[in-house]
Amino acid sequence: MVSLAHPAQYFDRIQAACPATGVVSLDGDTHVMNASFNAALRGVGAICHAVDLILQAKDTNAFCATRPPGHHAEAETPMGFCLFGTAAIGAKYALKQAGINRVAVVDFDVHHGNGTQDLVWNDPEIILVTSQEMPLWPGTGDATERGAHENVINIPLSAGASGADLMDHYHQNALPALVAHAPDLLIISAGFDAHCADPLAGLAFTTADYTEITKMLCDFADQHCHGRVVSTLEGGYDLDALADSVAAHVSVLMEHSR
Ligand SMILES: [Zn+2]
């Protein structure tokens, strides 16, 4: 599955980089230990398995509670705690399955989904909507970054922006584009570090905002892609806010589950 998004040499390099003992730093943020490789592979396996289960009509949606996150990993570069581009791999895997011709990825992590953007840039079947605080690490995500097929929508948010601000952007810009794309599946890169309590960023989302954002995305999925949603965990660094926000997110998914 990893080879859908990353060259074999990259896969081998990440495996070789994970030490038998101790910790190795791949960059200033991305540190790996012995278990890291299998943990990242299980994240990839989880999203692909979730796609399988949904296509087998076992359920209409799923949440993958995995670590490490994935949305910063580019084709040949680990970044920002991420080793493999989980959401992009899930989208590319889904496109290999019968009945899936187009996929939407929505990333509401506070940081730019630069890895997902890199991995889907040339894929007209995949539309990516990614919102991020700007300026903020990794520095990319300007609205002018549109993908090779205008299949990327970047929503930069100023420090202090609220969940309502993001939902305004969804209404004005993203949802019409998502409707036009007519996806057969929605993948959510669910990072919860836009929460006002998060120490790594400066947005002002509340736990209740994640309920409303998830409702909006599930309503879209109900109306336009048979309710099919696969959500995968990205960032979130205030553990209490993360726990509450994930619970809010999953509660809405469960309400929409059929
Ligand atoms: Zn993040």
UniProtKB/TrEMBL annotation:
Q: Which domain of life is it from?
A: Bacteria
The record's family statement is: Belongs to the histone deacetylase family.
Coiled-coil spans in chain = none
Domain Histone deacetylase as annotated: residue spans: 3-253
Q: Which PANTHER family match?
A: HISTONE DEACETYLASE HDAC1 (PTHR10625:SF10), HISTONE DEACETYLASE HDAC1-RELATED (PTHR10625)
Pfam families the record matches: Hist_deacetyl
Protein's recorded name: Acetoin utilization protein
